[in-house]
Amino acid sequence: MDSRSSIGTIKGIGEKTEALFHKVGVYSINDLIRYYPRGFEIFDDPVPVSEIEEGRVCTVSGTVFGRITVSPGKMRRITSLNLKDLTGTLKVIWFNMPFLRNTLGRGGLLILRGRVVRRKEILVMEHPEIYYPAGKYEEKLHTMQPVYPLTAGLTNNTVTKAVKQALSCADDNDDLLPEELAKKRGFLPYKTSVMKMHFPGTKEDFAQARERFVYEEFLTFILSLRRMREEDNRAENTFAFRDDPRIGQFLGELPFTLTKAQMKVWQEIKADLQGKHVMSRLVQGDVGSGKTIVAFLGLLLAGFNGYQGAMMAPTEVLARQHYENISGMLEKYHLPLKAELLTGSMTAGQKRQAYERISSGEVSVIVGTHALIQDKVVYHKLSLVVTDEQHRFGVRQREALAGKGSAPHILVMSATPIPRTLAIILYGDLDVSVIDEMPRDRLPIKNCVVDTSYRNKAYAFMKKQVSEGRQCYVICPMVEESESMDAENVIDYSRMLSEELGDHINVGYLHGKMKAQEKDEIMEAFGRNEIQILVSTTVIEVGIDVPNATVIMIENSERFGLAQLHQLRGRVGRGKHQSYCIFMTASKSDETKERLDILNHSNDGFFIAGEDLRLRGPGDLFGIRQSGILDFKIADVFQDAGLLKTAGEDAAEILADDPLLEKPSHERLRTYIDRKMKDFLLDTTL
């Protein structure tokens, strides 16, 4: 067994478990070695019951006080007990584990570890791990235990055991970094680093190992983008884009005037379309800054010059909304172009008719999802490709759509607020434009940061908004590693909220375990105001435009990164009514207060991104997956900005010396990039 062996060669992994590992992208021993923990559990001494805090994972020690009860019913039985120590009593519950009544009813000291939540004004520990007898906890005391990303059926214990075996195959010869570069940056040897990455003895061990692999992740990512950029720059513009007076006429008839920032970006796009080389441009703009209208101008110019333009959105519901908005503008302003919608859920007959209209050139603007890049789609004269929300698409998907035409222009829109300097490094294959000015008619969102004692007032406020015809979002963070528990949390919350608000208010819910069609149906029902309050996980971060939604309440807001909180807040403030964002937090720490105060006093995404970077810094070991921006395994563009800059400089030096990575010292780096990097950006959709 070596690092190239199949995952199935590991002792204890049969066909079923191997298939589960395949689901999370682990096929070989080397894949498993690089399957890093998503975080760590640090096993500290138990705390007194009187000192537990809402929203935190705590360890408590005590004895069972009174009877252990199991609720009746077949669907979701709840086992409850009271744990008592010298300082107080804590209610503890487990879901669908009735056998615990017999196991835990024998007496003796019991140690429990789990998240504490507030239910009906009392603190409750939900579904904790059990250490009985208590001596079992001492084996883990003061250790850091890895917590891995999982899928249904794959347990953390299974992954941990497999990783321990895989690490015996770790070899310094598998190191992607050239030896000279690793020494230059003072990194530990590869084998030592992967050991510390999975099973660190201390936080310092982990920080040292993580720094090495964050750097490696950034370096391979940037090298891939730089090489793609070099290829793109050789592509000549084969399309003749001439100015058309109908563009100016359309702008003059709009009920609003484009901001200076929008006009500047439009001029940059137009110059690219009329230039010598194919355009590859990223348009960054904060939520609500008006990126879509700028992209629409590019699609219009393509159509007026006899070409086609395509816009790809990450979800069907968002694609449909873009299509309806574009069709509406074409009709309202008497623009002589036709639009087409193409999504996966359309019937075979509908798709066939759409394919015919696209291939014949009858339609000029094609809007859709991944269906736009299917083999059956043949474009007439595709000259411009617009992708919406870039961080939801991989490079491969962008290339696939671009490959549908004869080297079409590429325009990427993103509402992700990354500081410009980082954007230039990250999107190295694209020129960067920024719309940094909001339309004048936008009412600023009113924010408030409150503790959990405000929750009933928040419910009353949402109830009042609904009575005035408005709608609301409630966001729940992921509370467990498994999607099923995540879903359970959202479902439970929506039931509780429905009981609290009454039958006349329809409360819906949305979570990541739902099928895409189910999510779209819920979002469309919300868009039609058939659902007044939507309880959701962060799957609504990129959603449809619902101008009637005026309130978003984010539970446990301290558990999100500032950039993601800002993205979530962008779900409201899209209509003519005043909108509100309520950041609910159980944390009383000064750090949380400082972070949330930034959001409380600013709606500027680029300012917030810079503050996020300043506050989090390189010391935030366990905030490595909070940003929700790019799906690096462990790297974070804010926290690790220094490493990102260093990797960018080193990548430039490497390519200046060896543009095709042909030197023997770069062989492993080149092989890895060729195999992995084309779909390095997040490929998942909502």
Mind sketching the topology for me?
Blueprint: H1 15-23, H2 29-33, E1 39-42, E2 57-70, E3 78-85, E4 88-95, H3 100-103, E5 110-119, E6 122-131, H4 135-138, E7 144-147, H5 156-166, H6 179-184, H7 190-198, H8 203-233, H9 245-253, H10 260-273, E8 280-285, H11 291-304, E9 308-312, H12 316-332, E10 339-342, H13 348-360, E11 365-368, E12 382-388, H14 395-402, E13 409-414, H15 420-426, E14 431-435, E15 446-451, H16 455-467, E16 471-475, H17 483-501, E17 507-510, H18 516-527, E18 533-536, E19 549-554, H19 562-569, E20 580-585, H20 590-601, H21 605-616, H22 641-657, H23 667-676
Parallel strand pairs: 4-6, 8-13, 8-14, 9-11, 9-12, 10-11, 12-13, 15-20, 16-18, 16-19, 17-18, 19-20
Antiparallel strand pairs: 1-7, 2-3, 2-5, 3-4, 5-6
Helix pairs in contact: 7-8, 8-22, 8-23, 10-11, 19-21
